[in-house]
Amino acid sequence: MYLIDVPPPTISGLLHMGHVFSYAQMDFLARFQMARGEVVYPFCFDNNGVPTARLAAQEGIEDPQEIEKMSHVYAERYRELFSDMQFAFASNPSYCSLSDETRQLANDSLRNLLNKGYAYKGTERTLWCPEHNIAVSQSEVTKDGRYERSGALVEERESEGLFINMKDHLDIIRDAINQINWHPNMFKQRLLRWVDDIQYDWSIARDRNFGVPIEGETGLVFDTWFISSMTPQLAWAAYQEQAPTLECPIFDLRFQGHDIIRTWALFTIVKSLYHNDQIPWADIVVTGHALDPKGRKISKSAGNFVPPSEFIDKYGPHGVRYWAALNRPGTDSRITESAMQKGEKLVNKIRNAARFIAMQTEDEGIVTEWCERWGEVERELFASMEALDWSTTISTLRKFFWNEFCSEWIEASKKRPSKDTLCSILLGMSDWFDMFLPGIKEEITQAVTQPQIA
User: What is the residue range of 367's domain?
Assistant: First the structure.
């Protein structure tokens, strides 16, 4: 069984192409593993924090129960988009960060940390956001000293609250970070540099009327990252169809954006260490952002938000997925419609190749050298996907299909009919294409195996 710690999209409004970009890349890796066995790969969403409350306020909703209801409506819209993009997790078991099970797990977590001495209640130096009037974590403050959720300049002050001790355990935190395989590795170095600068313990209580309540603390809710740092436990419980507990296996893979490595990645590592004395996952893939054609990060405030449906309607999910596949882990990428067009052309080329092979009626025997060459290529594909490098995989596959299989072998078969060999190799390629272009395998199989009507 292969376990993926999926990033729960925050309920904060409409999803944009940045979400489509990164979740598509995760789906390539998930489908690679799904072809080999069972995969834990849940649909999930984060609906307990400030962004969800802010979205509700924009719609005139203030009651916490009504905010929660609204969040589920948005979650279904997210699921519909993910389904349109043919992401496999859209139909899988789900969890959210504001459920009865999550509330129970969060308070169990706090009690466990208090009993072990990792958490404490007291007065500490904290960073304070004057706009939101709350203590914030050092990890949520930008380099110029501003709280990332409000943009306000933070102040240092003494504040009473609940804290997770990090300052006294930086050595084991560094060791855990080093045990994990980072893709790309530069993000491990970035996080280690951040850990070297930690000056404050993690403040985990917030004075808000919306969120996961802290038992015994009137009016206080957990910091959003305290909940998010338990996604492995929540994902594991969703697949087990049981209530989440603090114990869970080490996951194979965490997938996430580079903007939250010092929050979601770091805090998940810390909680896994403190609860279970283990790293949370063996590998972490850090993705880049999708940028507009001018190189700007996509946001409504920048005026460059284009609904993903426009690209899906124009180029189909295959075209959009192909664009996402061309980009390596950790790299920001501009939305490139020419790449989506190439994805469309590739799909048409695959269909045409399948039709041509299906029309052949003669065969002069297996072409051994072609079969051996495909075996070499397939080993290359396997190695690159094992290395979590989807961009090399799709580039190698496309190059082989276009330049060798179509340009050389199909052309050669017009003089020496080789239907069985071509059919066998194309069906083999269809397993790989289907990771990137779901549904294409079924099309190929039907085209080359069904009797042709003259």
Answer: 308-449
- Over residues 112-149, the pLDDT tens digits come to 999 999 999 999 888 988 988 888 888 888 888 898 88
Closest Cα to residue 39, out of 253, 322, 285, 234?
253
Would you say 223 and 205 are in contact if contact means Cβ atoms under 8 Å apart? yes
Is the domain of 175 the same as that of 316?
Answer: no
What does the alpha-carbon distance between residue 297 and residue 254 come to, in Å, rounded to a whole number?
A: 23
Amino acid at 62: E
- What is the DSSP secondary structure assignment for residue 405, as one 8-state letter? I
pLDDT at 139: 87
3-class DSSP assignment, residue 130: coil
Residue pointed to by tokens 């169990």: 108
Q: CATH number for the domain including 386?
A: 1.10.730.10
Q: How many CA atoms, within 13 angstroms, populate the side-chain half-sphere of residue 404?
A: 17
pLDDT below 70 — which residues of the chain?
300-301, 451-454
Does the bond joining 451 to the residue before it have cis omega, within 30 degrees of 0? no
